[in-house]
Amino acid sequence: MTPGAEEVRRFADDLDALLAPDARLGLAVSGGPDSLALLLLAAAARPGLVEAATVDHGLRAESAAEAQSVADLCRSIGVPHSILTAHWDEKPATAIQALARDARYSLLIDWARDRGLAAIATAHHADDQAETLLMRLARAAGVGGLAGIRARREQSGIALFRPLLDWRRDELRAVVESAGVQPVDDPANRDPAHERTRARQFLAGGEWPNPRQLAASARHLADAEDALAFVAEALFEERASRAGDGWSIDASRLPVELQRRLLLRLFFEAGDVAPRGPDLDRAIASLRAGKRCTLGRLMLTGGERWRAEPVPPRRT
User: Fold this and answer.
1) Does the annotation place 148 within a ligand binding site?
2) What is the enzyme's main class (predicted)?
3) pLDDT per residue as tens digits for the range 232-267
4) Are 262 and 235 in contact (CB under 8 A)?
């Protein structure tokens, strides 16, 4: 049941780039082929240092039995396993995948914290990354959105790692098949009502575009996003200052993308909700023209220096 030595070495190298070799790692294992491959590879690469958890969302009749099948597999290979059960006041009828994802991460983060794990690893791979890039291109996402799935990020104080982003879906299926393990088949993954399913079907239609190359583009965009964030942070420290109850910022002679990031930072400092893309674009156009506009709870004024002040309370 142990994967081949070459596959284990490859995975160990990918994981070593993210996590200290003696750190204890939690694995999110749904029972599908991708997460089962993650389980088998991690158990071989880090024996005695991994634990697994399966979230039973309770949204399908088979979910409890599927979670138990993962528990049985983990027992057979010596990996501690927990079943985490989602509880719903009312089962969702719309936005099911998004709500299930939020519930899943909340449960996994609490589990990792309780177990004293250094991080959680998920089984996102190169094909997932390519699908995400296509989906976000279709929504006219900016650089941050096109950066796709990050190899590492933090949520609620817990590190989330994706050590399989350089692996293809077929490679992971081969790991599971060679181990003789039967994965869970979730019919939702074939439902064209879901945007990701449509992206997956598009990419499966031929050799172009190549998912691995799309995933590489997302990685380059992630590097660009990191660079822009670094520059924007330095510019905010250099060009922004408090002005009464609000802020003043020298946004002159800056590219639009950096102006956008500085303005978003003002909303963060003001404790306001970040505005949506089109609203933010309209505000920037007004400010660049030296005009005044309202966005969220802030009154914005253009000119040589942009000003952001709280919107005055309405008179009653």
Assistant:
1) no
2) ligase
3) 999 999 999 999 989 999 998 999 999 999 999 999
4) yes
The interaxial angle of helices 211-239 and 126-138, nearest 10 deg, is: 60
CA triple 142-146-152, angle to 5 deg: 125
Question: What does the mean pLDDT of the chain come to?
Answer: 94
- Tokens 């998004």 belong to residue: 98
The answer to whether 101 and 188 have CB atoms below 8 angstroms apart is: no
85: alpha, beta or left, given left = phi > 0 and alpha = psi -120 to 50?
beta
Q: Has residue 316 got a pLDDT over 70?
A: no
Rounded distance between C-alpha atoms, residue 87 and residue 294, angstroms: 41
List CB contacts of 271: < 8 A, sequence separation 6 or more.
Answer: none
pTM summary value: 0.88
Determine whether the annotation assigns residue 22 to a binding site: no
Q: How confident is the model at residue 229 (pLDDT cuts 50, 70, 90)?
A: very high
Identify the CATH number of the domain defined by range 5-205.
Answer: 3.40.50.620
Q: Could you tell me the CA-to-CA distances from 90 to 93, 102, 106 in Å, in that order?
A: 9, 15, 17
CB 101 within 8 A of CB 143: no
Evaluated on CA atoms 28, 31, 35, 37, the torsion sign reads positive
The answer for residues whose C-beta is within 8 angstroms of residue 284's C-beta and 6 or more apart is: 256, 259, 260, 263
Is 217 annotated as contributing to ligand binding?
no
Judge whether 180 is annotated as a binding position: no
Give residue 96's pLDDT. Answer: 82
Give me the residue spans of the domains in the chain. Answer: 5-205, 239-310
290 annotated as a binding-site residue? no
Q: What is the pLDDT of residue 313?
A: 79
- The answer to whether the annotation marks 34 as part of a ligand binding site is yes
Q: Per residue in 55-100, pLDDT tens?
A: 999 988 899 999 999 999 999 999 999 999 999 988 887 878 889 9
Residue carrying structure tokens 């965009």: 221
